[in-house]
Amino acid sequence: MNKERSLLLILLTISIQACSSRQMYDSMQYNKKFECISVPSSDYDECIERANESYDKYKQKRDEAIKEN
Q1: Is the whole-model pTM more than 0.90?
Q2: I want to staple 43 with a disulfide (CB 3.0 to 4.6 A). Which of 22, 32, 36, 39 is the partner?
Q3: Residues 6 or more apart from 36 whose CB is under 8 A from it?
Q4: Distance between CA atoms of 62 and 10, rounded to whole angstroms?
């Protein structure tokens, strides 16, 4: 029973981490969009464009940067 419980705990931890990374990214992007309100109007469009980057595109760029280093 202890082995089954430990395995279940490990699997839940792994699945929560994957989900929470995406949620954390989404939360940061939301905050970035909110901050775009305070930038000069000439920089607003660029700010919003950066804040709208999808998680998948971000993850791809991140993975490529990790491979390069």
Answers
A1: no
A2: 39
A3: 44, 47, 48, 51
A4: 25
9 CB neighbour count, 10 Å cutoff: 10
Tens digit of pLDDT for each residue in 14-65? Answer: 666 666 788 888 889 999 998 999 999 999 999 999 999 999 999 999 999 9
Report whether 5 contacts 17 (CB < 8 A).
Answer: no
d(CA 37, CA 58): 22
Which own/partner pairs from 45-49 qualify as long-range (CB within 8 Å, at least 24 positions apart)? none
